[in-house]
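Table S7 (text form). Paired inputs.
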Amino acid sequence: MTGLPLSAYQADDRAAVQEIQARNALVVSCMRRAGYTGFTGDGLQQARPPDNATALPAGAWGYLGAEVAGVQGFHPPRRPAPGAVGGAAPAAGAGEAYDTARVDCDRQAADRIGAPPGPGADLLGRLFADSLAATGRDGRVTAATARWTDCMTAAGFRADDPASFPDRFRAAPETTPAELAAARADADCTTRTNLAGIWFTVLAGYQRQQIDRNGPALNAHREAVRAQDAKLARLLAEGDAGPTP
């Protein structure tokens, strides 16, 4: 999804990490000024890229890849629970005064970071939603989906919609052999029908049309995103921001 035309106008994973780093640094500095000199960031969000591997492994285009279909099925991979190795550190409070300081420091950090100005984010979200809806109605996609359905039927699975098909398996707490077989069939049929390739090609085409119609507003939003990136970099570079946990 990050390679789609509209994605060039929004913040990327690097910017998301930088925002977390800046927010954490501001909170740490604020808490230390409030008298909690030993505060090092307990309970703050870890500054690392989104773990895309935990995303659900299917969408309107079918299964994402055969390499995990036979192992993962339609369930996301297991991850350590919070507090375990690699998880979030538990918050360490010190009573009502501490909690009040934390709330105030979180608010101050949010105020200083702010958000890209203007209506560009709303426009971008609307264009993404409109392009997805148009893609779902497009005859090229509906024809490819019909071929996918025929392929799944031949493999022994009744499936009309690649987006909802995994739902019948995800409710189970554990991945079952039947789910793995279904996921392998989905991966195979998605490849055979080129459903993913057609879906993303059509979606990209609609988004390029949207960019042609909304170029000035989208360019203004992209400049606002870049300005926000520069602001975050300045906040991190400021001496009074404190170290990033």
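Next pair, protein 2 of 2.
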Amino acid sequence: MINYGFSDPNPRTSMRRKMKVTGSGSIKAEPDIATVNLGVVTENMSLEAAQRENTLRTNAVIDSLLKLKVSRKDIGTASFDIQPQYDFVEGRQEFKGFRVTNILSVTVRDLSKTGEIIDTAIASGANRVDSVRFSVENPAEYYSRALSLAVRSASEKAKELSYDFGVQLNPIPIRITEQSSVTLPEEAQTMKLMASSTPILPGQIEITARIEVVFEYR
């Protein structure tokens, strides 16, 4: 998609006219890292009992991951939450206990072990698996290549417009604005897991660079 604009063509009010174009470039990359969010949810009428059970099960999950050679620095707390639970019976609110939720964020550096890590965590006491997110650990190289494609795209669009309108383009831009992002396909970015035996397939990641460039012409 091209966004472009021309300034006032009256030479008395504008000696040089401006053209604005956008350019984009995308590079496909194989993911080399995954982030798994999983954890333990416990409920009990006693908050102390719910916390105690949650701590025991969470520690068991962490120990099981360490035995799979997951580094301790790759295991962190994504969220921790305590909520009272209520039921409505005949229009009245009745307390039904406390819910304690402890979600861990696990960085997986060997993607072939992603499914095994999830299975092991569940076998060790995890009862909630939120998502698996794939990415590249060092995206700078891919982004640089995508940015080069975006620059080429913007330059070619400006040349095409100047040719079509019969104007002389100054190929050196007067302003460049980056509008970039790393785009993850939805099916690869976040997968809600219904069962621990579900195969984990990373797919590909698309790293996209977008720029807005302003050229002068006459």
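Confidence is low (pLDDT under 50) at residues 1-8, 11-15, 185-196.
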